[in-house]
Amino acid sequence: MPLFERLNNRLRLTESGALLITHVRQTLQQHERVRARIEDLKRKRRSEVTIATTSGLAAGLLPRVVAEFRAHHVSVKTSVRILPVGQIIASLGSGESDLGLATGLPDDIELETFAVATGRFGAVMAPSHDAAARSAIGLADCRDLPLILADIGMPLRLVLDQACEAAGITLEPIIESNSLEMLKRSAMLGQGVTFLYFAEVEEEVRRGDLAFVPLQDPHVAAQTLRIVYRLGGELGAAPTAFAEALKAAIAPPSPAARAAPKAATRAQNDATRRTAKPVDVGAAALADSSHVEHARPRRHVA
Q1: What domain range includes position 40?
Q2: How far apart are CA 226 and CA 156, in angstroms?
Q3: How many domains does the chain contain in total?
Q4: CA 293 to CA 298: how far, in whole Å?
Q5: Is position 302 within any domain?
Q6: Do 104 and 133 fall within a single domain?
Q7: Residues 177 and 142 in one domain
Q8: How far apart are alpha carbons 210 and 188 in whole angstroms?
Q9: Where would I find the H helices in 147-230?
Q10: Does 14 lie in the same domain as 152?
């Protein structure tokens, strides 16, 4: 079917040609609109970063990292999604999240590791606790302490239960919860000792609200804290910059930085002892017996 016809030595479009040229023009216009939308999406993608992580890290390490990152990247929108470890992997695979941050991530073939650090696992308590000034603590040392533990089945509890089983030790909690905030607040109020990763309580330790004592025991399996992204995925400028900020934040602290909270705890405890007021002996005995009655946990060796 001809697209042109000759009329008086001039070419003009046939009806079919007119239909075709209209279609071509519409196609080119649509192509330009699609190209413009793709460019808009690229610009938006470059100015956003989405991190999938666990609740403990979202409340502990990430707020400071986000604040410091935004101080240098004010136009970048930062989204933090709290997910279980399995869903973090799925979120990266679907492209819903740019980065994942968690301990206990499996060696998944669909994940690429940006950075890795040793997850510092330890005992967490109020700075006034007798054990707060220690440089390390073992599982056996915890048997006679009032303990605040994560619920059975939670990753934190699994690490502890596996270590206790290997060591032949049973730890009985006085408080259990599936809320990390509950664990931290209970420890902060002097109810006992809980076990968390340092990255989950970093800010509270910095403020002097909690003390962190590394759990050093041959039965405690080493845990890794990893920054990951989708295998084969291309990180934009904003996710890459945020990943670098996270990498710096999870790097091992210097000996001086690690010793600073301990020095502050010792100073606080010394000040508390100096300002302590004498109390009536009978009242002190009553208070002590009440404490033993209500707070002393049952302990036994399996």
Answers
A1: 4-44
A2: 16
A3: 3
A4: 11
A5: no
A6: no
A7: yes
A8: 6
A9: 155-167, 180-188, 198-207
A10: no
The neighbour count for residue 229, using CB atoms within 10 Å, is: 20
Same domain, 49 and 29: no
Strands of the sheet containing 223-230, edge to edge, are 77-82, 48-53, 99-103, 223-230, 111-119
Q: Measure the CA angle with vertex 74, ends 236 and 114; round to 5°.
A: 35
Q: Does any domain span residue 287?
A: yes
* CATH value at residue 113: 3.40.190.10
Buried/exposed code over 96-120 (b: 16+ C-beta within 10 A; e: otherwise):
ebbbbbbbbbeeeeebeebbebebb
CA angle 68, 83, 189 (to 5 degrees): 70
**Confidence at residue 147, expressed as pLDDT on a 0 to 100 scale:** 97
Say whether both 272 and 126 belong to one domain.
Answer: yes
Distances (CA, A) of 197 to 48, 61, 209, 271: 28, 10, 16, 28
Give yes or no for a contact between 194 and 121, defined as CB atoms under 8 angstroms apart: no
Question: Parallel, antiparallel, or unpaired for β 48-53 and 77-82?
Answer: parallel
Cα dihedral 138→140→141→143 (10° resolution):
130
Bridge partners of residue 52, in order along the sequence: 81, 100
- Compute how many other C-beta atoms are within 10 angstroms of the C-beta atom of residue 123: 26
Is residue 299 scored above 60 in pLDDT?
no
Please indicate, yes or no, whether residues 73 and 210 belong to a single structural domain of this protein.
Answer: no
pLDDT tens profile 187-224: 999 999 999 999 899 889 999 999 999 998 888 887 88
Residue of 17, 18, 14, 259 lying closest to 135 (CA atoms): 259
Between strands 99-103 and 223-230, the pairing is antiparallel
Tokens of 65: 């990292």
Q: Compute the chain's Rg from CA coordinates.
A: 30
142 in a domain, yes or no? Answer: yes
Q: Does pLDDT of 122 surpass 60?
A: yes
